[in-house]
Amino acid sequence: MMSRDQNRLITQTGNGTPAGALLRRYWQPAALSVELEGPRPVRPVKLLGDDFVLFRDEQGRLGLIDRDCPHRGADMAYGRLENGGLRCLFHGWLFDVDGKCLETPAEPEKSRLCDRITLRSYPVCERSGIIFAYLGEGEPPALPALDCFAAPDSHVFAFKGLMECNWLQALEVGIDPAHASFLHRFFEDADPNDNYGRQFRAESADSDIPMTAVLRDFPRPEIEVEKSEIGLRITALREIDARRTHVRVTNLLFPQAFVIPMSSEMTITQWHVPVDDVSCYWYAIFTSFTDPVDKPEMRRQRLELYTLPDYRPRVGRGNQYGYDVAEQRDQTFTGMGLDINVHDQWAVESQGRIQDRTREHLGTTDKAIVAYRKMLLGEIRKAEEGKPVFLELTAEQAAAITGPATIDGIGTTGEWEAYWRSADARRRENAPWLASTLSEAAPAQ
Ligand code: FES
Ligand SMILES: [Fe+2]
Hints:
There is one protein chain. The chain is 22% helix and 25% strand. By secondary structure, it is α+β, with helices and mostly antiparallel strands. The protein folds into two domains: 27-133, Rieske [2Fe-2S] iron-sulphur domain (Rieske Iron-sulfur Protein), CATH 2.102.10.10; 147-436, no CATH class. Strands 12, 13, 14, 15, 16, 17, 18 and 21 form an eight-stranded antiparallel beta sheet that branches. It has a four-stranded antiparallel beta sheet with strand order 2-3-4-9, with no helix packed on it. A four-stranded antiparallel beta sheet has the order 5-6-7-8. The longest helix has 18 residues, at 367-384. The protein is globular and about 85 Å long. It starts with a helix and ends in a 16-residue tail after the last helix. Residues 436-445 have low confidence and may be disordered. Residues 173, 179-180, 183-184, 340, 344 line the site of fe (ii) ion.
């Protein structure tokens, strides 16, 4: 249970808040690259409670600037993209991607006003289909050489979705290995080759037990949490019998992402980014370790579930998450369909716009959540004291951080670590574009 002040401290991210100051020291996903495609590559972006405009100029350079024009505050998101920048519609002031004022065309010919004006701009970088922004002071840290960034463009696909709740509860569902046995329970096991978003498609080469049956029949995982070089490593073991154990190793990437296995061929790296304190986007990079990804098809599948331009789920708060009484009785634990993303959406949104953590009662299965909050509070404190914070990397440090090794499958009981390592090694053999992470992976304690 937390105090009201602590809950506020870890959930509020607006400018000037302690957690906001911490998050502003890391790159934040601001948009998908595809959102800047089309005839006019200009988009308003709301991030951590502040409003910005993201645009690509005529030379293809990316810029992220404050949304209000420094003249008299008109909305730059409607600006004209021309003459090397974005021009405000009100009086024609023109700004480039760095926020430099290029023209104030209504001012007298000899006016020097332009030289004194700047629009605040922020560093941006584009990686694996996501445009990241750095909203902090000074130089941004380097991004670690994780699989999702190391993979070539042909092997990554990015997507996002809106969640109408605070970013922290969206993140916390991903570091809670116990919920899958309940929230995502299916009373019958489907064809494991089913499409995206259906049931689990984890690796179970050594076993013919469907993953849905493992989760359903073994609801008490043994959870271990250790500090890793990117945050936390979370291991959940479900012992099936003396011979076989289900092993799921996931990773928290500090401060806002997790790296989880999707199948033996693919991992998901997913950030949870505050739009403001009562809504957030998840941004995911799907990384393939085998064949190139079919981006148009992956996007088409997901757009059946999300609406543009806001990437709002079609099944959600507005239609009771598709809740169906008969389905809940006969087919699924939730009665909310077969797409596990809908279940997660319900879980986190149902906790309230900002979960009141003064009323919660944590159990043993919440180990990773406890460890993460502790880490978050510690780093917030360091940021407040002006100290370096975790994973604020130099280019050299960033290059050395690869992986992480993440797995979901059935190994030999008592030998989960050997299974985890060999399964990850096997995956990497299929992906010669990746360096082996095994030498860097810290041995489990
Ligand atoms: S308000 Fe933008 S140019 Fe005047
Ligand atoms: Fe889930």
